[in-house]
Design a protein that fits this description.
The complex is a heterodimer of chains A (109) and B (119). Chain A is mainly β and 109 residues long. Chain A has no helices and eleven strands. In chain A, 0% of the residues lie in helices and 51% in strands. In chain A, the strands form two sheets. In chain A, strands 2, 4, 5, 6, 9, 10 and 11 form a seven-stranded mixed beta sheet that branches. In chain A, strands 1-3-8-7 form a four-stranded antiparallel beta sheet, with no helix packed on it. Chain B is mainly beta and 119 residues long. In chain B, strands 2, 4, 5, 6, 9, 10 and 11 form a seven-stranded mixed beta sheet that branches. A four-stranded antiparallel beta sheet of chain B has the order 1-3-8-7, with no helix packed on it. In chain B, a hairpin with a 6-residue loop joins β4 and β5. The chains are: A mainly beta (109), B mainly beta (119). The interface between A and B is medium-sized, with 24 and 22 residues.
Chain lengths: 109, 119
Amino acid sequence: DIQMTQSPSSLSASVGDRVTITCRASQGISNYLAWYQQKPGKVPKLLIYAASTLQSGVPSRFSGSGSGTDFTLTISSLQPEDVATYYCQKYNSAPRELTFGGGTKVEIK
Amino acid sequence: QLQLQESGPGLVKPSETLSLTCTVSGGSISSSSYYWGWIRQPPGKGLEWIGSIYYSGSTYYNPSLKSRVTISVDTSKNQFSLKLSSVTAADTAVYYCASLYSSSWLVSWGQGTLVTVSS
């Protein structure tokens, strides 16, 4: 089974800071990776799919990159409304299994 | 815009079977573009994929839960369902249903329903 490891597990940054979250796959997964944002008490929301494609309506300060085993989610200028836990998720074509990373909690300093 | 809504008991006794249904509106569950999935989140913890189904009935399960999970689809009602057998307290979680674009990323989510396993 392919494992997904996120780092850090939590971070605290100031408004306007550039924030980077890393997701590492235990085996290569090409660009089969999505990122989600879950605000406290809310439903997860799709931010990015195919490693770097921004979902419609998501602010452009969010971006994703990577391929193979190493991926990053970047918030170019952290805003108060970005306080949330962020999850990566890999998907396969065969077998059609999904695996989430453990999550990264982002707070405002 | 797809909308999904979970329904089912909020309390299940240990060793019994958890049963939930997801009703899809704003689109057809028979769409060739989407799979349909269940995801859960224990209180204070991360997300766990349970399994997915295509409108044809093809199913894909998390290997760690496969022996206890059954997901089915009812295209006439635009619904799909989850059954999880032999539940324990470790199965207490918020259960979400969601649409998956081409069995890949989760596009639309239900609001989630908390299921507590307790006697």
